Amino acid sequence: MVKFLVVKAPSAYNIILERPSLNLFRAIASTFHMKLKFPTSVGVGEAVGDELMESTQCEGKEGDDRH
């Protein structure tokens, strides 16, 4: 079982999963390809990130000290 903590705050991330959770889900993450692959009952599921959307959403987030 994985417990999630839901917070209402601006963030550059939708979800943060640690390695134990990824192992539990039998998921494989690729930060280079911005993909997460995981087994499903009908094959392999895939969650794909959008690099352009991610980069524009990160601008102005708290902790961004480039400005």
Concise synopsis of the structure shown:
The chain is of the alpha+beta class and about 70 residues long.
Describe the structure.
It is a single chain. The protein has 67 residues and is of the alpha+beta class. It has a domain at 19-58. It is 22% helix and 22% strand. The chain contains 2 helices and 3 strands. The chain has helices at 19-25, 51-58; strands at 28-30, 35-40, 43-48. A 3-stranded antiparallel β-sheet has the order 1-2-3, covered by helices on one side. Strand 2 and strand 3 (43-48) form a beta hairpin. The longest helix has 8 residues, at 51-58. The chain is globular, with a radius of gyration of 14 Å. The termini are far apart.
* Helicity range: 10-25%
pLDDT < 50 runs, ≥5 residues? none
Approximate shape: globular
Q: Averaging pLDDT over every residue, what do you get? A: 77
Order of helices and strands: HEEEH
**Strand order, largest beta sheet:** 1-2-3
The beta-strand count equals 3
Major sheet summary line: 3 strands, antiparallel
Topology:
Elements: H1 19-25, E1 28-30, E2 35-40, E3 43-48, H2 51-58
Antiparallel strand pairs: 1-2, 2-3
Main attributes of the structure:
2 helices; alpha+beta; 3 strands; 67 residues; three-stranded antiparallel beta sheet; 22% strand
